[in-house]
């Protein structure tokens, strides 16, 4: 079974072709980074138009890369939310048109489920596993028991980790997107040189908070004379270390809880921690979490960077995980679509 996947929920227009045996025949991504960089962030209306401009070419390029035609495609999947609705509509309408014209099944995929299952596309891990989803819009710890079954253990009370990278990069004049820019700048900086807080360290729950870190960074930067004179590389390294510490500390708590909960039902399997989403591409964060996972006796799975940041291979794969359960063509796009609809919000301003 081979699925063509489409991703268009944010600022990349992507198409990929993946088979049930996990072979990735094509994984094309047309980024709008240059379009949005001049605005310092994604402008929804501009993004929607760019998706419309690029979608046909990206799909054609994926088929060409795979050396396939539509005759080789058994199903078509598209991100149906959550995300910027204009882009989601472009991708889902394209997918529905192909599904109708070719009489093949259509899958409306949750973008977050794409991230959540990406660890299974690049490894042979089974269920259950603990997932740290760290992306531009989300920072959550989830127990994943099956495709479609997620128990949220913790979430951010304010900004997502990727959002913290992006906002801090903007404050430091490092541009957009912030994560890769900060990782590059941090490589030649001293992570111990500037003291920043570690919000919620040691807390008894699995929640996160990053907005205080952003404020602290802005204050330090101002004290150091602003972007012209401040040691930006040291600031970047210190910020990256603070975010890594926060992610590691909260994940450590989640590993303890996860291990206790699963020890009775799954005695024979090794516990697994999967890190997914754009921030999972960060090497320093991976190294920090690796240490924590080793100490807790968890094996750790991080997809290659191309599968961490937004891509369509993960969308095709999420559909392959349930390819006998396609969706109707009238499935409506969902601007909001939580993985665990039953999750209760954390104390404070939870999302
Ligand atoms: P969501 O998946 O929550 O809807 P999104 O799709 O915009 O949001 P992703 O594309 O998964 O998010 O990830 C993008 C985020 O990852 C951005 O905030 C970006 O700065 C961050 N990011 C990408 N690469 C790195 C990196 N090397 N280090 C840190 N952060 C990174
Ligand atoms: Mg993106
Ligand atoms: Fe994403």
Automatic annotation (TrEMBL):
Its EC number is 2.3.1.234. Substrate binds at residues 133-137, 166, 179, 183, 282. Signal peptide: none annotated. GO terms for cellular component: cytoplasm. It holds the Pfam family TsaD. Keywords: Acyltransferase, Cytoplasm, Hydrolase, Iron, Metal-binding, Protease, Transferase, tRNA processing. Its cofactor is Fe(2+). Residues 326-351 are annotated as: Disordered. Residues 24-317 form the Gcp-like domain. Fe cation binds at residues 111, 115, 310. It is found in: Cytoplasm. It catalyses: L-threonylcarbamoyladenylate + adenosine(37) in tRNA = N(6)-L-threonylcarbamoyladenosine(37) in tRNA + AMP + H(+). Residues 343-351 have a biased composition (Pro residues). GO terms for biological process: proteolysis; tRNA threonylcarbamoyladenosine modification. The keyword Metal-binding applies. Required for the formation of a threonylcarbamoyl group on adenosine at position 37 (t(6)A37) in tRNAs that read codons beginning with adenine. Is involved in the transfer of the threonylcarbamoyl moiety of threonylcarbamoyl-AMP (TC-AMP) to the N6 group of A37, together with TsaE and TsaB. TsaD likely plays a direct catalytic role in this reaction. Belongs to the KAE1 / TsaD family. NCBIfam families: gcp_kae1, T6A_TsaD_YgjD. This is tRNA N6-adenosine threonylcarbamoyltransferase. It comes from Puniceispirillum marinum (strain IMCC1322). The lineage of its organism: Bacteria, Pseudomonadati, Pseudomonadota, Alphaproteobacteria, Candidatus Puniceispirillales.
